[in-house]
Amino acid sequence: MGLRWISLACGGLSGGVTGSAMGQIGYAIAPMIARGIMLGPDQPVILHLLDIAPAAEALKGVKMELLDAAFPLLKEVHATTDVTEACKDVNIAIMLGGFPRKEGMERKDMMSKNVPIYKEQASALEEHAASDCKVLVVANPANTNALILKEFAPSIPEKNITCLTRLDHNRALSQIAERLKVYVTDVKNVIIWGNHSSSQYPDANHATVATTNGERPVKELDTNDHWLKNEFINTVQQRGAAIIKARKASSALSAASAACDHMHDWVLGTPKGTWVSMGVYSDGSYEIPKDIIYSFPVKCEKGKWSIVKGLKIDEFSRAKMDATAKDLIDEKEVAHSCLN
């Protein structure tokens, strides 16, 4: 197979600070990519690692570790603080860096830091990335960061810019598996609708579980409607905060793994009969407003995703889906105000 160039944009630009050593997600995901977890066991890769200037020495150390691991698939590693160099000819760009929300900081304050970061990175991708570049935004606010990137990289097809809600999707799978005392691989087709924030809607209405008697709907196996409409949703929505409380740091290993899952399925395809959740540019499906990056159920084939159509939406789900859409519209307006 031909080489794939992958850029990990790990640090914020224009004054943004996200930590050192590429940040915890970057440090976790780089060896996963090098081992073939993201693109398969036969796909050689070249990694471009980007961070801010104060982290240059730590970034050099990460490069040394990657080389010392002697990953067979890893053909080259470029560590740089130059966004142009990091974006040159890349086929895949994973945007990990951003300015984190700090205590006492209003949403607009955080966005005023992130908008110029993603505007600058968008310009670099626009000018220097490969024409087929696939972009995954991980840094929060992920949906709106991806939207800003899309607006300032107009030559990148809108279907090539996505944000990460696979982490929430995986959390939903694991909560159902734990609840029903089955393996997580037995559960499929949960949905994360909307924003990668506490307004997201984790939906188990269409999820199924593989049993000895064939696939059965989750709602048949767990008839406790109260759990599905309350504790399940709240647990998935607040899982990130619970992890921060427990480990005094945000999700890193699970986020890196989810980013690999997202790109793996996007590039190599989803299994037959299975969908996953991706934050994508809305085309108006399910009465969701256009011109926002919104998480839908999608199937992937031959490097392209498509929204799963025709799912029945009940009144409870409709209200939740509309609420998270409104949250994204509000975020979009705040982000645009930061451009003025």
Descriptive account of the structure:
By secondary structure, this protein is α/β, with parallel strands linked by helices. It has eleven helices and 14 strands. It has a six-stranded parallel sheet with strand order 3-2-1-4-5-6. α5 links the parallel β5 and β6. The protein starts with a strand and ends with a helix. Residues 12-21 have low confidence and may be disordered. Residues 17-161 form the Lactate/malate dehydrogenase N-terminal domain.
What is the rounded distance between the termini?
Answer: 46 Å
Structure summary, number of beta strands: 14
Order of strands across the biggest sheet? 3-2-1-4-5-6
Helix content: 40-55%
Strand content: 15-25%
Poorly predicted ranges: 12-21
Rounded Rg: 19 Å
Shape field: globular
Quick rundown:
The chain has 340 residues and is α/β, with parallel strands linked by helices. Helix content is 42%, strand content 19%.
Q: SSE layout and pairings?
A:
Layout: E1 4-9, H1 23-34, E2 45-50, H2 56-68, E3 74-80, H3 83-87, E4 92-95, H4 107-128, E5 134-137, H5 142-151, E6 161-163, H6 166-180, E7 187-188, E8 191-193, E9 201-203, E10 208-211, E11 214-217, H7 218-221, H8 225-237, H9 239-247, H10 253-268, E12 276-281, E13 293-301, E14 304-307, H11 315-339
Parallel strand pairs: 1-2, 1-4, 2-3, 4-5, 5-6
Antiparallel strand pairs: 7-10, 8-9, 10-11, 12-13, 13-14
Helix pairs in contact: 1-10, 4-5, 4-11, 5-11, 6-8
